[in-house]
Design brief:
Blueprint (H helix, E strand, L loop, with lengths): L1 H19 L11 H9 L1 H12 L2 H12 L17 H15 L4 H12 L11 H36 L1
Helix pairs in contact: 1-3, 2-3, 4-5
Length: 163
């Protein structure tokens, strides 16, 4: 419900931001295409608002960080794409840390501390990772060895027994 109330606010802020911070620094009204984008897509209006307040480099950092993080609530959606309130909270938190000039490693570590490795789309591999992949292969190889040994021992017994 609060997210629905936040949407018109973000659209208004984006329109005002475009008016006061035009592409060439002059005051200008948004054109028809910009208004359509703002009213049709909340995510775009959110991004336009953030872009108007952030430098180009910080805006790219924000997009990068939110695109490599998984929403803890939504299934297989990044924080950038997810419509949940928690994803919005994470986006705002990332924005605040970027404004405080925190580096990417600090931001990611803080979010991993809060939500665990599951928030990362590509979590780091641990030592258990190798064990989980190699153990089945080792069990198959051991089973094959025992099976072949059993067959050869039976064959030798038959050959020795029949002689």
């Amino acid at each position: 419900m609060k997210y629905l109330l936040l949407t018109p606010l973000l659209v208004c802020i984006a329109i005002i931001s475009i008016f006061f911070h035009g592409s060439n620094g002059n005051r200008q009204l948004p054109n028809k295409e910009q208004l359509n984008i703002l009213t049709n897509n909340v995510k775009v209006s959110e991004e336009l608002y953030l872009k108007s307040k952030l430098s180009q480099q910080d805006f790219h950092r924000f997009n990068y960080l939110t695109s490599i993080l998984r929403c803890p609530i939504c299934a297989n959606e990044t924080v950038l794409e997810a419509p949940s309130k928690l994803a919005l909270f994470i986006r705002v938190e990332i924005l605040q840390m970027i404004n405080e000039h925190k580096n990417n490693r600090y931001i990611l570590n803080k979010l991993v501390d809060q939500f665990g490795n599951s928030i990362l789309l590509l979590p780091p591999r641990s030592d258990n990772y190798l064990l989980l992949w190699l153990l089945p292969l080792l069990l198959v190889a051991l089973s094959l060895f025992v099976f072949l040994r059993f067959i050869f021992n039976n064959r030798e017994r038959r050959l020795n027994g029949h002689k």
